[in-house]
UniProtKB/TrEMBL annotation:
Pfam families given in the database record: TetR_C_24, TetR_N
Protein name according to UniProt: TetR family transcriptional regulator
Protein's UniProt keywords contain DNA-binding: yes
GO molecular function (one): DNA binding
Domain of life per record: Bacteria
Alphabetic keyword roster: DNA-binding, Repressor
Keyword DNA-binding: yes
Origin species: Domibacillus mangrovi
């Protein structure tokens, strides 16, 4: 079997070790010993352990932001945009759960320019989601009495908490979980008029025929 590239092995090893022992509980020497490379190999790919932690964070945040932008451009109405963004947000836990877990456990150790760059992307994502909700309120699709700012934080908090409980081998698939989240948001946010017009019908959970 072909050996994985050094950078990939370093990242995979660091994810496991950071999650188990914490960022400050792991040294570069321990990482290179565990993954079978050298300190030279480590510093060829990362200037420091801080840059490695930044990379772990940046991989999934950049992917998430790009997917949200793709959803916004692909869909043509606020309801479809919101549901597509929620779906892509949920799916990331199937792809990058170790990265996300390390992020929430160790993000306080990210400092300086690294912290600033990550926060900029997180803020850009939050603003895009907020924009979609406000657009939906202006079109009459989303309820005006529910503040868009609160809805934004509620959606992000609801999905982010998956890092605590989602398991790939669990009872529910990632697609089913995304559908549940969308169903919840549609029933919470859509106006009666939008519901009657079937704005979110394709994202609702399907009921079994009696």
């Amino acid at each position: 079997m072909k050996k994985k590239p050094v950078k990939e092995r370093i990242i995979e090893t660091a994810l496991i070790m950071f999650e188990q022992h914490g960022y400050h509980g792991v040294t570069v020497d321990q990482i290179v010993d565990e993954c079978g490379t050298s300190k030279g190999g480590f510093y060829h790919n990362f200037r420091s352990k801080d840059e490695l932690l930044y990379h772990i964070h940046d991989v999934f945040i950049s992917y998430l932001l790009n997917k949200a932008k793709e959803s916004y451009d692909k869909e043509t109405d606020p309801v479809s945009r919101l549901c597509a963004i929620i779906t892509s947000f949920t799916r990331i836990f199937d792809l990058y759960k170790p990265h996300i877990t390390v992020f929430y456990q160790e993000s306080t150790y990210l400092k300086g320019d690294f912290e600033e760059r990550i926060n900029e992307k997180r803020d850009e994502y939050r603003k895009l989601l907020l924009q979609v909700l406000r657009e939906g309120q202006s079109t009459g699709d989303f309820r005006q009495e529910v503040p868009a700012e609160i809805s934004t934080m509620a959606i992000m908090g609801m999905i982010n908490w998956m890092y605590k409980w989602f398991k790939k081998d669990g009872e529910l698939s990632i697609e089913t979980i995304a559908s549940i989240f969308n169903d919840m948001m549609i029933h919470s946010l859509l106006t009666e008029k939008a519901m009657k017009l079937g704005r979110g019908d394709r994202f609702l959970l399907k009921t079994e025929p009696v």
